Amino acid sequence: MTAEIITVGDEILIGQIVDTNSAWMAQKLNAIGVGVVQITSVHDDLHEITQAFKLASERSAIVLITGGLGPTRDDITKKALCHYFETDLVLNISVLDNVYALLNKRNIPVGKSNELQAWVPKNCTVIQNINGTAPAMWFEKSGVIYVSMPGVPFEMKGIMEAFVLPEIVRKFSLPSIIHKTLMVVNIPESILSNMLNDFENNLPPHIKLAYLPHLNTVRLRLSGKSDQQKKLEKDLREKVFELRQIVKENIASEGDKNLAETIGENLRKRKQTLATAESCTGGYIAHLITSIPGSSEYYLGSVVSYANQIKEEQLKVSRSIIHKHGAVSEAVVVKMAEGLRKTFKSDYAIATSGIAGPGGGTLKKPVGTVWICVESEGGSFTRKFMFQGSRLQIIERSALTALEMLRRLMNDFPID
Amino acid sequence: MTAEIITVGDEILIGQIVDTNSAWMAQKLNAIGVGVVQITSVHDDLHEITQAFKLASERSAIVLITGGLGPTRDDITKKALCHYFETDLVLNISVLDNVYALLNKRNIPVGKSNELQAWVPKNCTVIQNINGTAPAMWFEKSGVIYVSMPGVPFEMKGIMEAFVLPEIVRKFSLPSIIHKTLMVVNIPESILSNMLNDFENNLPPHIKLAYLPHLNTVRLRLSGKSDQQKKLEKDLREKVFELRQIVKENIASEGDKNLAETIGENLRKRKQTLATAESCTGGYIAHLITSIPGSSEYYLGSVVSYANQIKEEQLKVSRSIIHKHGAVSEAVVVKMAEGLRKTFKSDYAIATSGIAGPGGGTLKKPVGTVWICVESEGGSFTRKFMFQGSRLQIIERSALTALEMLRRLMNDFPID
User: Fold this and answer.
1) pLDDT digits (tens, 9 = 90+) for B177-195
2) Which of A241-246's residues contact partners 24+ apart within 8 Å by CB, and which partners?
């Protein structure tokens, strides 16, 4: 059983927004055993939309469509659906009720464009959208299911979870697809691939391995497909075990957990706390940590010390040290971590200071120079890095590297 | 002149990564006057890849392909290219030199899988990749250009900017495509659409208007296409002026500038400073602000006060106030802003305190309850919000709302 995703909207094709819907939908479909064959983004153009419907329906039995259902005139998905199914729009009273209820609740007057949302193709089954005025629409024709949903992510997600995914599970007898992911830190993809050569050669045909590199990490993904779920789970567990034997401590986490989650779990288990002092990372480490639900249990907070004055006053780094070594230096980053841990009384501290660019670099300290210190009662690591890339990339690399240093410190793993 | 983008890789179709490359490429292509007709994501599958090449080449004269060029065996784009162009791989010595130079510089030993990167289809023109080992490849056949590039974003971007975009400009005589974007804050899409009804009816056929809603903002995008660039620029300037007359102060910025940039420009011009005290937003406001190059000129820093102890010690919020009103309260958020501005001596202060969830909500203060205070010598706003959505959405909405409140405070605009 395979599906296709079609996203409609000029905003994707002129690059004004990134299509995050498709990745989410693909994840959910894979989890219920439906492979996604193709994702297609098309213009708000009648011919292109209907052509995409046609091609998708030739390859897959499920076609999920998002976007182009807004109340404004650039949105033409409904027109395209009518054209494709050779039908007309009819007024659906329950949708109209929903439009009124929703807008009244938000104190927004109902205009003509809102009322138009209640007109839907005659041959569809309406799926109510409790988060917005545009309903989703379910069509079946010649053995193919088409579902048209709004492009607003949380509206689409609500509809998928409440209705579309359960309905697909109910309708079809689906095989098990299981993915297991291991996050490997600090081994380049090509070296990892050499390490895993024998492992790959010995994989059974129903299990595949993929490498997903991102900054200083490579996620290894094992994907298995089978009608026998129990056996598949066992096979994958064994393969994960084998991978752990080969890659060892460079495996930072299992599953789609990121470093902040892994560290958070560890801190919670040990009932320990963390604080951060961020200069060049500018709050990004704090954001990564506080994005994790429940982080207030172990995360005390951060001092984002962009100005030197803050380093002095909040972190007790003496002016003379900043003056002597410069703000981006080993001496300052160590003092930041020490001052932080003293003030916040945390078990662990992370401090960063660097030049994220594009300005501010010098010959001696070019853009990308970043000092990171992770500290605890029991020990510390302080390292200098020369990161490359844009301002945001340098911030991101610094933050992830700092988290990985902390993971190693917490687990008594060495840093080379 | 139109182009298509094809991204190759299972990781997109199982939803493990979000395709950010396509949006970036589409932006750059539009900027040089090449419209993108379709974006297609396909599996690492020979038949599907070549089929996508074929369909794209029937619609467009430029086909840009990313992904599937890594050193690991799940990557098969080169095999698909050979199959499609009915040719074989040959060893390219200059690519081999680049592979050795690059890996030596990074102290990575060259393995067999790295050397395979230097084998390219016989009929291609190699484009060197200075940021990675996989070269890009330029093909021409039956009047269609195909360029295959690595999927790693900064490698692809380097190749696009240094070679592919200039070469397309050189080869074709392209019309001007100009986009003008206005960011509108705090007006729902449907109301905005009613306000702009006459404006839309009076648009000339070569200019189109699109609505791009995201959280509390709607970006209005005017797109014009013409062979007469000067006239097009003038037409669009006039339309932007008309829009400004209608939407007035709810236009937060022009261009693709975000709120943090707009505020930053304003602060820099006035030589004023900003500091933030973040509880529920957990450093995200600091991150948005420090993502802007040059923000160290006006941004002093942040206290991310996740623990109450930090609110007391760093922000001088008295324990009794926290005890009496709770951490998520008007009294505390006002004290946070005041304490912050006193300590940091900044012209402006932003403070947030709320419950981002999913845990921590109560009947009286459910998840999504957020207090925000923006403060300056001359005045302040303090407001309570009830945001909906996931933890990350509540964090994001809170941060953007805080920035918008600051923008209004800085410009003496009212808040309803």
Assistant:
1) 888 999 998 888 888 988 9
2) A242/A199, A243/A182, A243/A196, A243/A199, A244/A182, A246/A195, A246/A196, A246/A199
pLDDT per residue as tens digits for the range A322-375: 999 999 999 999 999 999 999 999 999 999 999 999 999 999 999 999 999 999
Nearest to A300 among B39, B52, B310 (CB): B310
Judge whether A322 and A312 are in contact, CB under 8 Å.
Answer: yes
| Structural domains for chain A | 2-171 (3.40.980.10), 176-254 (3.30.70.2860), 271-410 (3.90.950.20)
Number of CB atoms found within 10 A of residue A189's CB: 19
Longest dimension (CA), chain A: 78
**Which pLDDT does position B211 carry in this prediction?**
81
Q: Between A and B, how many residue pairs show a Cβ–Cβ distance under 8 A?
A: 328
Q: Record the tokens describing residue A311, joined without a space.
A: 């380093």
H-only helix segments in A296-329: 308-315, 319-325
The pTM of the whole model exceeds 0.95: no
Is the preceding omega at residue A358 within 30 degrees of 0, hence cis? yes
Minimal CA separation from B370 to chain A, in Å: 16
Torsion of CA A49, A62, B20, A31, to 10 degrees: 170
Q: Where are the beta strands (DSSP E) in A247-402?
A: 251-254, 274-278, 299-305, 348-354, 369-376, 379-386
Q: For residues A281 and A300, give the distance between their C-alpha atoms in angstroms, rounded to a whole number.
A: 17
A105, two tokens:
């609740």
Q: By C-alpha distance, which of B152, B129, B147, B145 is closest to B137?
A: B147
Task: Tell me whether residues A13 and B28 touch, CB distance under 8 A.
Answer: no
Contact (Cβ atoms closer than 8 angstroms) between residue B392 and residue A287: no
Which residues of chain B neighbour A301 with C-beta distances below 8 Å? 303-307, 310, 314
User: Tens digits of per-residue pLDDT, A401-414?
Assistant: 999 999 999 999 88
pLDDT at A381: 96
Which residues of chain A have a CB within 8 Å of the CB of B274?
A: none
Q: What is the pLDDT of residues A281-318, one digit of tens each?
A: 999 999 999 999 999 999 999 999 999 999 998 999 99
CA gap A409, B49 in Å, rounded: 45
Residues A342 and A349: their CA atoms lie apart, in Å, by 10
Of B298, B338, B301, the closest CA to residue A313 belongs to B301
Could A309 and B300 be called an inter-chain contact, meaning their C-beta atoms sit closer than 8 Å?
Answer: yes
The answer to whether B148 and B161 have CB atoms below 8 angstroms apart is no
